[in-house]
Amino acid sequence: MKMTLDMPPADDPLSLRMPPPYRCGIAFTFDTDMCSGYSPADRFGCHGRTAPFLAEHIRRMMDVADALDIRLHWFVIANGLENGLDWSVFEEALRRGHDVDSHTYNHVNLAKTPPEELASDLRLANIYLKRRLDVGPQVLRGPGGVPWGGLGPESRQVILDAGFSYVSSELPSSCTPQFVREPELALKDPLHFPVHRYPEGLIEIPLHGWCDRGWFDVVVGDAESLMRWRDASGHEPVPDGWRCPWTQPDALDGFIDFHKRMFDFAYEQRLFIDFVSHPYGFYLHDPESRFLREMMAHIRAKPEPVWIGTLRDAVRDLFDPDGG
């Protein structure tokens, strides 16, 4: 059966100005929350305190990225920067040349949170990110994602008033039942969901493809097995050689293959990809960082060079807010 896509057009797509000699572009971005779906219900929920085992995995991911000569973009829940917590891994990320930005203060959904509450949350997040990491607002990552066109005008104005020029919140491949039923539709995300400008002037950088949670827990995951593991062992380090009980043995192979094919489409069409996942998901499903290694080998095997950077880099290098 032929797959079709019926989605409204973007408000005001921005022109992609890929600098020579690059053919297309990709950013590898990661939301560093501890994923409430992997924590027993009576424990922490989705809080920014980074568990020691997860901080060490983030460092290992940065070791791989450094060896591959690429920069990663980390989006941090700012309540993890409260007094008495350890945020040194993000200080280290900045020292090593990676980017760190806001994932809100309390992991609030940008589209569903009342405007006054959202304004308070973003204001507090800005204070902590500046105080702890000397990071000012530029790109905001929306927790949980919103469907295409789901961020309303009041929320957009609050985000602008908080000092952000760019938001990365639209996650159509996980938020829309059509994609869950037919996951292959997401292969063309970079074409169907371009960077665009809202009427208020805020610029949206949509998320493309399947994040780790969407793929391993929804597309190829068994919800009952996940809940049993979460309640018995969630938010504890897993032993070496651990195998996920809620996915098929080849789940990681499928995740890598899907994103290689999505990249191939973006390469042919000269598009930009905003890839997103969580380090916690990679800790569980890809402890050896096969995804980064194999994606970069695939990317660098192409005959024309590919632009690789963070969303802050993309804002500077790839998109012209004044050029339409």
Could you name the key traits of this structure?
single chain; 324 residues; alpha/beta; TIM Barrel; 5-stranded parallel sheet; 13 helices; 9 strands
Plain-language structure description:
The protein is α/β, with parallel strands linked by helices. It has one domain (25-317): Glycoside hydrolase/deacetylase (TIM Barrel). The protein has 13 helices and nine strands. The protein has helices spanning 52-68, 88-95, 115-133, 153-161, 172-175, 177-181, 189-192, 212-219, 223-233, 251-269, 279-285, 290-300, 311-317, and strands spanning 25-31, 73-76, 99-102, 139-146, 166-170, 196-197, 203-204, 272-277, 307-309. Strands 1, 2, 3, 8 and 9 form a five-stranded parallel β-sheet that branches. A four-stranded mixed β-sheet has the order 4-5-7-6. Helix 4 (153-161) links the parallel strand 4 and strand 5. Helix 1 crosses helix 11 (279-285), helix 3 (115-133) packs parallel to helix 4 (153-161) and helix 10 runs parallel beside helix 12 (290-300). The two termini are 36 Å apart. 44% of the residues are buried. The mean pLDDT is 93.
